Structure formats: C-alpha cells, structure tokens
Amino acid sequence: MTGRQLTLIVPAYNESPGLEATVREIRAQAAATHLAFTIVVVDDGSTDDTWRTLASLTTDIPELRAVRLSRNFGKEGAIAAGLDVSQGDATIILDADLQHPPRLIPDMVRLWEQDGWDVVEAMKRHRGRESWLQRAATRTFYRVARVLTGQDLQDASDFKLLDRRVVEAWRRFGERATFFRGLVAWLGFRRTQILFDVPQRFGGQSRWSIGALLGLAVHAVTSFSALPLQLISVLGFVTLLLAAGVGVQALRLWWSGLALPGFTTVILLQLIVGGFLMISLGIIGTYVARIYDEVKARPRYVVREVTPRE
Q: How many of the other CB atoms lie within 10 Å of CB of 138?
C-alpha cells in the first residue's frame, strides 16, 4: 500500500434497499487498488432508512464516512458536499445504485497513478434500459448543449476520477448553482476516457424523467452560455424584416388601388410578435432568476450531521 489516498464520493437519496451492497462492493474494489481510501456517502435528505443504514455500516466499515444534509439539495449539492470533505490525492464520484460499475475503480486509479491523467471520465457505451423517448430526449439535450455551450458532453456521466489539483480548482468556483459535468469539462487538465455499459439499477426505483432532463438542460445552458440572450436580438431582427416585408406589400397594394381589409394579416402579425416577445421575456426571466439566486449567496448545501463524529 502506497502513501497516496483515494476518496470515493457516493451521493445517495432514498437508496436504502441496495445501499449496503453498494458500499461493500465499492469497498472491495477500492481495496484492490492498494491505496488507503475513504468512502464518503452523502445522504441528500433521504426520507427512507438511508441514514439509519449508513449509521449502522459505519460501525462495521472503518473506511466509511457518512454526511447527512439537512434536506434534499439535489445531486449537485450532494456532490459539492462530498468534494468539500474529500482529502484524497484522487477522488472518484459514483452513483449509489451500481449503475456506475465499481469494478472500473482499479482501472481508473491505474490510469491516474501510472499514466498520469488528471481526469478519468467514465463514458456510457450503452445506456441500458431506456425508452425511445428517453434516448431521443437525451440525444437532443447533448446536441443543444454542445451548440449553446461549446461543451461536448455526449454520453458523459458524473462517474469520474479527479486528481487533487482538479478538486482544488473546482472548489474555487464561486457560483451557488453548479453543473458538475460541465464544470469539470470547462476546467480542462489532462483527461482520458474509459467506456462502460450501464447495468440494470440495483435496488429502488429511478427518479430520472423527461422533466428532470429538461430542467438539467436549462440549468446547463444558463450556466455556461449567454447565447439564448443573444438569440433575442436575432428574433427581433427577424420580426423587423417580417414587418418590413408586410409593410412594403401593403404600400404596393395601396398604390395599385388593390388594398383590401387586412384583419387576418394584422392578427397574424400580432400573434407572431407577441409570441416572440413572450419567448424573449421567458429567456430573460430565466437568467434574471439565476442572477437572483446567485446574489443571495446561500450555501450550496447544509450539513445536518456527520458520522462517525470527529
């Protein structure tokens, strides 16, 4: 065993059915790296027996540390809490449902330790059991995110190994609302990829939905790009051209004596302009809401308790 240390961060929300098996599997794979390691499970305000399970496991697994948040702050908040307490020379983030296979941990550590990569990203080769609608929505999300943010997150996941330098750089981000995948990509550093097939979820039910994906898309775009705000100017220019064209046509008909009552045209123009205005106000409102949240400078998460107590 070398002197280097490994921290494994596991966000968990209502994962009690399979949590013990997950922790023990992660522990077995981490032990295979021959590094000293700590497993940090962040209970993101679970309403089931997740915390009770963790409290019981900490008495049996000395490498386990459990952090309980005061309420559900979302996965981004749970990841932030884990990164803030990480003390490892390398940190691995993975899910609690075993859809991020712990068997990849030794390979990720080898790429970091022997080959010198700062970031090892686990990329989804096969997405597992997803409906055609979920697959289509996911593909659309990645394409839109690439166009609007310049970040290629195709088949990316939160399953990553980060060198300590990357974690320290991530901690310097000042924004309250974080997007972990995008921020790690933005940081740069030397990075490599490792592929995996998403296995069937172990225990519990998935809470991922099209609505959650849509929320993630809005969060990702507004976090990394002001392009939607610039598109408002494009909409305004298009509306101006449309109005100019209609105006020229109306004058031509008037000069030729063929002018007819234009009730339908007026109504259509009002609907088009009104639609553009509402879309523009919605985009501006989304950014203003993000500014409002950031200005309040509330913490990303609040810790209720930690076990074992130090």
A: 19
> CB–CB of 73/67 below 8 Å?
no
Burial label for 255, CB within 10 Å (0-12, 13-18, 19+), is exposed
- Burial of 105: CB neighbours in 10 Å, binned 0-12, 13-18, 19+: buried
> Which residues are CB-contacts of 103 (< 8 A; sequence separation ≥ 6)?
29
Q: In this model, does residue 20 exceed pLDDT 70?
A: yes
User: Within 13 Å and on the Cβ side, how many CA atoms surround 290?
Assistant: 17
pTM passes above 0.90: no
**CA 264 distance to own-chain centroid:** 46
Average pLDDT, the chain: 78
Asked if pLDDT for residue 207 goes beyond 60, the answer is no
Which pLDDT belongs to residue 177?
Answer: 75
For residue 94, the tally of other CB atoms under 10 A from its CB is 25
The CATH superfamily of 5-223+299-307 is Spore Coat Polysaccharide Biosynthesis Protein SpsA; Chain A (3.90.550.10)
Model confidence pLDDT, tens digit, residues 127-175: 556 566 666 666 666 676 666 666 666 667 788 999 999 999 988 887 7
The whole-angstrom separation of Cα 258 and Cα 226 is 46
